[in-house]
TrEMBL record:
Domain of life: Bacteria
Annotated positions for site Lowers pKa of active site Tyr: K79
One Pfam family matching this protein: Aldo_ket_red
CDD domains: AKR_AKR5G1-3
Keyword terms, alphabetized: NADP, Oxidoreductase
List of residues binding substrate: H112
Protein's name in the database: Aldo/keto reductase
Amino acid sequence: MVKSLQDTTTLHNGVNMPWFGLGVFKVQDGQEAIDSVKAAINNGYRSIDTAAIYRNEEGVGQALKEVDVPREDLFITTKVWNSDQGYATTLEAFESSMQKLGLDYLDLYLVHWPVKGKYNDTWKALEKLYKDGRVRAIGVSNFHVHHLEDLLAHAEIKPMVNQIEYHPHLNQQEVHDFCKKEGIQLEAWSPLKQGVLLTEPTIVSIAEKHNKSAAQVILRWDLQNGVVTIPKSIKEHRIIENADIFDFELSAEEMETINGLNKNERIGADPDNFDF
């Protein structure tokens, strides 16, 4: 049972990753990124998830310099963008991200999307960074089962994480089961379906029973399903509220009810059909 913001899951290589963190997708670089990352860390968050394409790695890096938490207590994730995929270009993209973040090592580096014909070479670059001690864990994002199977057939090192769109309208059971079987930690992006789920009547009524918000119920559901989650917010009160989910538990029946809301409905692109 996850009891606090500092609680971690152990990845298959023994690295501890916080169950809960702050995502910074669509957070503007500069003061907005600095303020939201500092607000999260000052309120107990230890995991921050960014990506090259978010164009806010510098703001995140600046915030990391301004907080009073030792580097080794933080867990920082970034991702290689699609246009940089391939072996040599990924290694260059990594250096560029590290420079912007101002870090000498990274906790988790992800392949952002399964770019056809490229992700296996990209993965080889991640394996090199991992072996060289530049990254503590490596993983993928938006990979379906068939992408994972293909990667595993070519990989030397199994991904530690698969970060996917995951929420009550898209619970990706097949991917979840496969990752469990392979010891790959599942992580949710867009856990609140960009706010769409906050008015879902079933979730609202469960939330009322627990005297919690709809967002808190969904994020609790993630954790009880064994899924790491990284909701995004730029408002300090919301950052605090999102993390206030360690003092209640959803019953097995409530979990089933929320599981039953699945419609296989995405808010983002389909990993089998994207053009960016």
